[in-house]
Amino acid sequence: MTVKLVDATISSFGSVFEKFKAEAPQNKVNLILFLADNDPSTKLSWCPDCVRAEPVILKKLEALPDDVALLRAYVGDRPTWRNPQHPWRVDSRFKLTGVPTLISWENDAVKGRLEDYEAHLEHKISALVSVN
Fold first, then answer.
1. Which of 3, 14, 80, 124 could cysteine-pair with 76, CB 3.0–4.6 Å?
2. Order of strands, edge to edge, in the sheet holding 29-35?
3. DSSP track, 20-79
């Protein structure tokens, strides 16, 4: 199995997401992982839940027998994310309330999601990717 990994920021998301959607039919599983940016001073995400969840998610995806596309979308630094008008908080497709959020994308729509409090749970990740 192959994990096709692509990264996007708020500014690059539009074009990266269009390419992700265009290539989605070629993959068995298509996921979007919304994460906090890394803190330049520590090189780690400022979000402890993201630090905990990302390696668990990647491990689960790498163990899948099918091709998986994973778009990692970085929400910005803490002040950017805390803004109630953050683009992905108000986007009707995503309606983010926390990070990390893992979204299953199928047929040009959100098929399922794991919120910040559950995105690190292996059994929940398995259930999310099995619904595709």
1. 80
2. 3-8, 68-74, 29-35, 101-106, 109-114
3. HHHHGGG-SEEEEEEEPPBPTTTSSBS-HHHHHHHHHHHHHHHT-SS-EEEEEEE--SHH
Count of domains for the chain: 1
- CATH code for the domain in which residue 110 is found: 3.40.30.10
Q: What is the pLDDT of residue 130?
A: 87
pLDDT in tens, 66-106: 889 999 999 999 999 999 999 999 999 999 999 999 999 99
Beta bridge partners of 31: 70, 104
Omega of the bond leading into 100 within 30 degrees of 0 (cis): yes
Contact status, residue 96 vs residue 36, Cβ threshold 8 Å: no
DSSP H/E element including 105: strand 101-106
Could you list the residue range(s) of the whole structural domain that residue 107 is in? 3-130
* 8-state DSSP, 100: S
What is the pTM for the complete model shown? Answer: 0.95
Task: Return the active site residues.
Answer: 47, 50
Half-sphere exposure of 85 (CA within 13 A, CB side): 0
